[in-house]
Design a protein that fits this description.
alpha+beta, Aminopeptidase, 5-stranded mixed β-sheet, 24% strand
Length: 148
């Protein structure tokens, strides 16, 4: 199976929305159409501090995505990289594409001089955590959110 990890392009809009919709559904959430439009525009925009995206393809068909961004950090001079969303469709799971997407973000962080790449996942996401435990180090931090 020929696979490729490449930057998101405008022609990916429908496939990107399909993949991101499945990702959001896994976390029992959805976003309005305006958020899809805004996020896609930001992913393709010129602001280096804004979102970035990569698409994983198998035989030319998009089957996975990763969103990441670089941001300032009070403890470092350099920007750090936050891997926000990672998704590989069921038809391509277990093929190494999740790992390849993470490693592609690592490579982009290295190219940008970002000394850290981090992400969050829910504790029940055992399948993904098996991969994460092989490519990263779990930390003891607990996340808090402002109540609505």
């Amino acid at each position: 199976m020929p696979t490729q990890i490449r930057p998101l392009v405008p022609e990916d809009r429908d496939d990107w929305q399909r993949l991101w919709t499945h990702y959001l559904a896994f976390y029992n959430t959805a976003v309005p159409d305006a958020v899809f439009a805004s996020t896609f525009a930001r992913l393709l925009g010129p602001d280096r501090q804004d979102f970035n995206a990569l698409i994983a393809t198998v035989e030319g068909r998009p089957v996975g995505l990763v969103h990441y961004l670089f941001h300032r950090h009070a403890w470092k001079i350099e920007n750090v990289c936050y891997l926000q969303d990672l998704y590989v469709g069921p038809e391509a799971r277990g093929t190494g594409l999740g790992r390849a997407l993470i490693e592609a973000v690592y490579a982009r962080a290295d190219a940008e001089g970002a000394p850290a790449v981090y992400w969050l996942t829910q504790d029940f996401n055992q399948t993904a955590r098996q991969l994460y435990d092989r490519v990263a180090r779990v930390t003891p931090f607990i996340r808090y959110n402002r109540p609505l």
